[in-house]
Amino acid sequence: MASSPANDAPWRLIDEVEFGRDVAVHSFTNLYGCRIGDETRIGPFVEIQRGVAVGPRCKIQSHTFICTGVVIEEDVFVGHGVMFINDRYPRATTSAGDLKSDADWKLEPTTVERGAAIGSGAVVLGGLRIGAGALVGAGAVVTRDVAAGSIVTGNPAREHRPSNPS
Amino acid sequence: MASSPANDAPWRLIDEVEFGRDVAVHSFTNLYGCRIGDETRIGPFVEIQRGVAVGPRCKIQSHTFICTGVVIEEDVFVGHGVMFINDRYPRATTSAGDLKSDADWKLEPTTVERGAAIGSGAVVLGGLRIGAGALVGAGAVVTRDVAAGSIVTGNPAREHRPSNPS
Amino acid sequence: MASSPANDAPWRLIDEVEFGRDVAVHSFTNLYGCRIGDETRIGPFVEIQRGVAVGPRCKIQSHTFICTGVVIEEDVFVGHGVMFINDRYPRATTSAGDLKSDADWKLEPTTVERGAAIGSGAVVLGGLRIGAGALVGAGAVVTRDVAAGSIVTGNPAREHRPSNPS
Predict the structure, then answer these.
(1) 3-state secondary structure string across A12-77
(2) Alpha carbons A100 and A90: distance in angstroms, whole number
(3) HSE (CB half, 13 Å, CA atoms) of A161?
(4) Do C13 and C33 touch, CB atoms closer than 8 A?
């Protein structure tokens, strides 16, 4: 599509990406093998890996990393500096001392359901589901599923109960 | 000013930025509509948004994001990978299903007072004041004001009481 | 060495780096004055500072910052968005009000021993040793030494005791 983001803009690496209409991709980005839905906006310093699907009308903010195995539905906000994970026990090398390859680990897929929001600096472990409309607080480390409509904060992330009603 | 950083250096996006004297801006940066004071240094992979004011003699380290609504006074250290926030309840879209625009949210401004230091990996929520000379520990998630001269750590950040005097 | 990464690839800053054989360095990287061992892979949006030594067969993932004073042995995994630290009390300026220089602070060196893995979003304070084969959980803030073979999580990081055996 003529109007899609492409490598002719300054300092973007875009390789085999399927764009919907009116997608905006900032400079200093590395996207490959993924799908980005209509009207979604991708900030600077973002990497999105092969196989990721991002729905329409999402905001993926700066400094965020979205790994293979992540599905982001429509109307999702992903804040700045959010790190997704797909490997529970990462290692550089196999027990035999070779660099790990795609055959040497188990992918743990994660889904972020429609309308959810993930605060800046959050870390989302693999194999999880973040329910529709949920809010993950800034800096939270998400180690369990998050129920639809709930708010979680902290490390590890727990259901949020304000300690100070002010 | 002839000696100011500009887009002719490799891989910087600098748009409508007002620089003091002897400012250093590294490559891989995205600065727009902000003011940067004398002798301040900006590391790589940094974004500073419209309306931000950074005082003189500050260090803004790599991978840090400073959003609209943040004021950083003089002599402030902002570590690596620090994320500021200006929106308490971020969403990608309005309840009507449209992408949120500037009219659809309430800006919560934050001030970092003179001589404060914010450790690497910290997350600073919106609407806060970090007092003069305060130290925010690395990885802290700041959800309340920080008193001048105090040290806060943890998630959420609390006044620091060393558990081990060694 | 003819096959080593160099500045002729798109958008990399590589200055006085000593590479082993078969090193891969992605775009959007800033490496200077460091050594990188055989077969090690460096992701995008990574900065590695002067004096750092990274061993062979390591993976340094995207958005990670490795500061002066860090030694990473062989077969180490460093996840995405990991921040190392070498200065316990960072400040922008000296008490005399001058910008701090190399003479105005005490470097606290850190070693990550062979086969360790550091999860994404972790923050590692200075002056520490992360033992061989240890696993630092995603989002952990490491403030003490980590014993070889152990698993630590949380902020501050503590030995991990699963609360749910499933």
Answers:
(1) EEEECCEECCCCEECCCEEEECCEECCCCEECCCEEECCCCEECCCCEECCCCEECCCEEECCCCE
(2) 9
(3) 1
(4) no
Are β-strands A77-78 and B59-60 bridged in parallel, bridged antiparallel, or unpaired? unpaired
Chain B: give the shortest CA distance to residue A46, in Å.
11
B163 occurs within a structural domain = no
Percent of chain B with pLDDT over 70: 93
Count of domains in chain C? 1
Find chain B residues with C-beta within 8 A of A115's C-beta. Answer: 91-93
How far apart are alpha carbons A108 and A89 in whole angstroms? 11
| A114: alpha, beta or left? (left if phi > 0; alpha if psi -120 to 50) | beta
Q: What would the pLDDT profile of C3-42 be if each residue is shown by its tens digit?
A: 578 776 789 999 999 999 999 999 999 999 999 999 999 9
Contacts of C126 in chain B (CB under 8 A): none
CATH of residue B145's domain is 2.160.10.10
SS3 content of chain B, % helix, strand, coil (to 5): 0, 30, 65
